Amino acid sequence: MTMMKSTLAVLVVLVVSTCCWAQDEKELSVSELLWRANKDVVRAEDEPLVIDDIAYDSEEERNADQCTSQGCMWPKSTDGKVYVPYVIANHYSSRELSVIENGLQSFSQVSCIRFIRHTNQRDYLSIQSHNGCYSYVGRRGSAQTVSLDRQGCIYHSTVQHELLHALGFNHEQCRSDRDQYIRVVWENIQSGLAYAFDKLNTLNMNTPYDYNSVMQYHRYAFSANNQPTMVPIPDPNVPFGTATQMSKNDIDRLNRLYKC
Q: What does the pLDDT look like over 3-58, one tens digit per residue?
């Protein structure tokens, strides 16, 4: 009897610990989740060039916003909807598939974007568990990879973040008007990672800079010394980079780009 009570006590502790751990994981911001998922990954030879969580076809693309330099939007149908075909690799569990599918379908609730199962369309998203979380920016043509690694990327916020990349959006801290709202503390950034703060000629769609965007990284992103790499202007105490889902501005920007 005593042994049974001890065993039950251990099981209760394990269940409670697991629940609390899972909840803590879910409460992390998207920028923290992406950092944890990508910081130590080693890319396979058949993966694209990935800088931070953005995929490129070549090194030359790094300093340009693909959407303003070559057009990247998914086409609009005659019914006013934008259909984005996708396939999901079969290596995900049912729980992981549910998270991914919920992330995909969340766009239909707030925009004219409709992610649909791929049939015979030429251009589509291929969602796979590669090394880390990453996506190309905008429509690239043919099959394009969106990596949602089973080890660290299967969260609602990270799914939305990578899909916004695929729809044409860059990180908020790379906005063309960034310097009016964020001061980058270059000396605190890890060596070789300053590219994550490159300003781009971005599609801001007349929306304000958004500290709460799901595309905004957190205060200590890529820090080499546990000191901030970004400080808000003019109020340095404004919280930012804490999003766990798309903000109103993210949604407005998406709807304006695609004229929903």
A: 444 433 433 333 333 333 333 444 688 888 888 888 877 778 778 778 778 887 76
Question: Has 162 been annotated as catalytic?
Answer: yes
Name the nearest CA neighbour of 155 among 245, 88, 91: 245
CA distance 238 to 173: 15
Joined together, the tokens standing for residue 78 give: 């005659």
Pick the catalytic residue from 32, 61, 162, 172.
162
What's the pLDDT tens digit per position in 92-148?
999 999 999 999 999 999 999 999 999 999 999 999 999 999 999 999 989 999 999
Please state the three-class secondary structure of the chain as a single string.
CHHHHHHHHHHHHHHHHHHHHHHHHHHCCHHHHHHHHHCCCCCCCCCCEEECCEEECCHHHHHCCHHHHHCCCCCECCCCCEEEEEEECCCCCHHHHHHHHHHHHHHHHCCCEEEEECCCCCCEEEEECCCCEEECCCCCCCEEEEEECCCCCCCHHHHHHHHHHHHCCCCHHHCCCHHHCEEECHHHECCCCHHHHCCCCCCCCCCCCCCCCCCCCCCCCCECCCCCCEEECCCCCCCCCCCCCCCHHHHHHHHHHCCC
Angle between helices 156-167 and 30-38 (to 10 degrees): 90
